[in-house]
From TrEMBL, chains A, B:
<dbReference type="InterPro" id="IPR014710">
    <property type="entry name" value="RmlC-like_jellyroll"/>
</dbReference>
<dbReference type="InterPro" id="IPR000595">
    <property type="entry name" value="cNMP-bd_dom"/>
</dbReference>
<feature type="domain" description="Cyclic nucleotide-binding">
    <location>
        <begin position="26"/>
        <end position="96"/>
    </location>
</feature>
<keyword id="KW-0805">Transcription regulation</keyword>
<keyword id="KW-0238">DNA-binding</keyword>
<dbReference type="GO" id="GO:0005829">
    <property type="term" value="C:cytosol"/>
</dbReference>
<dbReference type="GO" id="GO:0003700">
    <property type="term" value="F:DNA-binding transcription factor activity"/>
</dbReference>
<dbReference type="Pfam" id="PF00027">
    <property type="entry name" value="cNMP_binding"/>
</dbReference>
<dbReference type="InterPro" id="IPR018490">
    <property type="entry name" value="cNMP-bd_dom_sf"/>
</dbReference>
<dbReference type="InterPro" id="IPR050397">
    <property type="entry name" value="Env_Response_Regulators"/>
</dbReference>
<dbReference type="GO" id="GO:0003677">
    <property type="term" value="F:DNA binding"/>
</dbReference>
<dbReference type="InterPro" id="IPR036390">
    <property type="entry name" value="WH_DNA-bd_sf"/>
</dbReference>
<dbReference type="InterPro" id="IPR036388">
    <property type="entry name" value="WH-like_DNA-bd_sf"/>
</dbReference>
<protein>
    <submittedName>
        <fullName>Cyclic nucleotide-binding domain-containing protein</fullName>
    </submittedName>
</protein>
<dbReference type="Pfam" id="PF13545">
    <property type="entry name" value="HTH_Crp_2"/>
</dbReference>
<feature type="domain" description="HTH crp-type">
    <location>
        <begin position="160"/>
        <end position="233"/>
    </location>
</feature>
<keyword id="KW-0804">Transcription</keyword>
Amino acid sequence: MANHGKRFDDSTASQCLSCYLKALCLPRDLTPEQFGTLGRIVDAPVRLDKRESLVQQGATFSHLYAVRTGSLKQVTDGANSETLLTALYLPGDIIGFDSIGSGHYSGTIVALESSSVCRLPFECLDELSSRMPILRRHLQRNISRTMQEERLRLHQLLSRTAEARLAYFLLGISNRFRQRGYSPHHFRLAMSRGDIGSYLGLTHETVGRTLAAYQAQRLLYVSGRDYHLLDVTRLERLASSTGRRQKRA
Amino acid sequence: MANHGKRFDDSTASQCLSCYLKALCLPRDLTPEQFGTLGRIVDAPVRLDKRESLVQQGATFSHLYAVRTGSLKQVTDGANSETLLTALYLPGDIIGFDSIGSGHYSGTIVALESSSVCRLPFECLDELSSRMPILRRHLQRNISRTMQEERLRLHQLLSRTAEARLAYFLLGISNRFRQRGYSPHHFRLAMSRGDIGSYLGLTHETVGRTLAAYQAQRLLYVSGRDYHLLDVTRLERLASSTGRRQKRA
DNA sequence: CGTTAGGTTGAATCCTCTCAACAGCCGTGG
DNA sequence: CCACGGCTGTTGAGAGGATTCAACCTAACG
């Protein structure tokens, strides 16, 4: 690093210090000094316009990215020329964990709206983590947790109906907003119906129809990409039921 | 560790040295000394009978396990008293990556047949990895790769028919056997139809019917839990198509 | 102001689930 | 040794849900 000698409260470091998301992307209980060391390797934030892409699928992996504002999607195209939405990133999320293993970004990252992200050079981070067990743990935890959550989530979705899948999805989003300090009942989701469908394995028509059905039952109110969850309890019941006819005991 | 002074070719170390799976669970290009250090922290292998469980869901996380022989499944029960088969482990696989984050095992691990596994104390492994970058990288890669593979796989499955899901699944198994040096065309899968269904989000009837349909088309031959893949090319076509009617361009 | 992408709605088709009945295999226990 | 129940796997019939295809509507944007 060129700025090796800088004090921990220099401009880049304070970027992290002042960031209200630090509880999400950084370990807690860092000493000010550790904080400084870490902040020093963070590059200046990158600004992205809507639809602009951060990295291309297949490009060689070099940085992790922490979402500061806005939201981004990961689209991956498989062998058979189908492209799937494989991840949604909200402020505080770290992008790129899934690309460490192969050395190439596993999908194209596209901004769903104007967004800004922090660049984290992985080499530096890795080198640092060998000397800072607390950081190593934090990274491990973060990877491991997202892996286990996603595994369970996707397996649960596999056997569910569109009704349950959507409820499950919306409640997940709601929780993520809650963790970030936003309202869990009212939020804007910058994804199209098609995006949601791609993520959940449904067609855009089905997504729309299901949302309409929810509205008819007063479970939520949707206007465009604005969502108001009205009856979370009932949505939870829906999400955790298979949505199918009861198998008789 | 009590056995800190042991030479690298002592009994536990040689266990790994002589293990034909070391290419899978250990980094390649280790010096004999590093090899010894690593081998020293590996506990004696654990033997499991069919149906015996290795760890219970929710137990506090302490060890990773490397599968030596046999096969195991991870079953996770969600909130709503449904239990899902969330992972299948074959020789050379590492069990437990998904449990580092939460500190608790994320599912019960059950042997599908008589199996043996190596215990890897995570604390030691982690401590070691701070001094051995090559090991740290290997662990990171392993976690990251399984995470990304699984994410893509499950998202692809979400929008596919039973026909495509099963083909996809069987080809995945086939590849894993190939990597391990077994025949990719003929193998025994110790899972029941119900297990497969749970993993893929299908009912056991559908699994059976689909296998029967494959046999009628001479794509494969199944007898009980013995599988012979006859026409891999055609299976691959099936697996990578959605299985649905072609959407017209 | 026209074009395009996103969204809604309807009708028909197809796939998978549910339910039910039955065959085979295995271990237990009489 | 055989009977028994339990577990696993197979097959069939009917119902329900998601998809495909088509038409139409809206909002955004050059």
